[in-house]
Amino acid sequence: MNTPAWSGRSHGTHFDAALNALAQIHHVSGDPPQVTLYELARIVTEALNIERFSVWCATEDRRAIRLYFLYRRSTGAVSDGSILRKEDFPSYFRAPEGRTITIDDVTTDPVAADLLEPYLAPLGIGALLDAPIYSEGAPSGMVCHEHVGGPRTWSDEERLFAGVVADNISRLLEEFLRQRAEQNLRVYQRELQVLDRLEAMGRMAAGIAHDFRNLLNIVLANAELLGEDDLTPGQRVYVNDIRSAVAHGTNLAQELMHFGRDVAGRPSVQSLRPFLEQVSRLAAPSLGDCSIEIRQEREVSRVLIDRPELERVLLNLLINARDAMGGRGTIRIEVTQASGDRKSTGIGRAVCIAVVDSGIGMDADTRLRVFEPFFTSKPEGTGLGLAVARQIITRAGGTIEVESTPGVGTAMHVFLPVID
How many CA within 13 A on the CB side of residue 134? Predict the structure, then answer.
């Protein structure tokens, strides 16, 4: 790819020093990639006087980009793991190809329209200067320079500098992509392959469920025609059994129609404490004599996820906890900032939402199969709740894990990558 030559003499010493520093950066074998990127990010954010610098890598199927590295200048904090999918943010992914994507005012530029309300505005980002990165001549990701504050007019020098930064990122990625990026993308790709199979199964199941639900509606309508006054006590029992079975079948049909579907969502930046309090109020009438206790010792980072989808996951986990405890006791929701040292998560800095009960717990076989579609230990369960929950969390770049001991209780851990 031909790129404009950068002439230090024509653009002054301010960028000269930054360019010289960037040219000296090389990945040291054995060092974590973020060590190298941290030094690069520090140089770039100072040279451009910006708050946020991030690198996003394309997934293998090109349907999404995954946050590989995010640096915040004011705090020095780094994070990774969030997902932006093409179907969720089509305007941004359709942005004109070129050396850079320059957005001086995110509130008026159509390229930023999809990102404005769910992502840019909550993070206070007023202007963007993004540059694609390439691998073997093909786009393989994006380097984002994010200005926090109001609009900002990017100069020609700054746009050219951003392109050179992207070239340096491409060079560095060739040096260490096989380390963390490859590992993380491979984990996510495996999850996507599972989701692809589920989607194929879900499309078939949805068609069957649609017809099945129509038949159940006919059965229920006829059952309702049987007047209570015309029935003997024994007949009323049978009619109530019909209604109960139809209700269970309708619930199963509804789950089948949602299972495996890959539809465009509306991921947005979420502050978890107020969200969890709202979910707790929403769930309370369905929890019988169970109460909810939210434990959060300190403020945690925000996450990027579709709000109704996360609500659905947590409601499912709370109902499962209620059932495991026989409808009595205290369900704890514990919120912590995870350091990423849990190898199974495959992500770095994350927020963990744990739903903890003191119920009957699970044996080893149940723990292994708990996310398996149609597997359930409940007499009237569909076996789809946790399968759908896993699908939702995976699409957000996170993971969900189970920890359980028979007779002691269960903790369901939802890990979500931080976005600030």
Answer: 13
Closest of 166, 27, 54, 73 to residue 417, by C-alpha:
54
Query: For the whole model, what pTM was predicted?
Result: 0.74
Q: Look at phi and psi of residue 196 and say left if phi exceeds 0, alpha if psi is from -120 to 50, else beta.
A: alpha
Residue 336: closest CA among 346, 325, 350, 322? 350
State the Rg of the chain over Cα: 25
Domain coordinates in residue numbering, the chain: 8-177, 186-263, 264-420
The class that CATH gives domain 264-420 is: alpha beta
What contacts 198, CB < 8 A, 6 or more positions away?
A: 259, 260, 373, 387, 391
Of 191, 165, 169, the residue nearest 59 (C-alpha): 191
Q: Which residues does residue 45 pair with via DSSP β-bridges, in sequence order?
A: none
Which one-letter amino acid corresponds to residue 91?
S
Tokens at residue 115, please? 């990102």
Regions in the chain scoring below 70 on pLDDT: 1-13, 29-31, 96-97, 175-214, 227-229, 248, 251-264, 339-348, 379-382
Longest CA–CA separation in the chain, Å: 98
Residue that is written with structure tokens 């599972």 in the block = 194
Question: Is the CB of residue 182 less than 8 Å from the CB of residue 190?
Answer: no
Q: For residue 131, count other CB atoms closer than 10 A to its CB.
A: 24
Q: What is the CATH T-level fold of the domain 8-177, as seen in this structure? A: Beta-Lactamase (3.30.450)
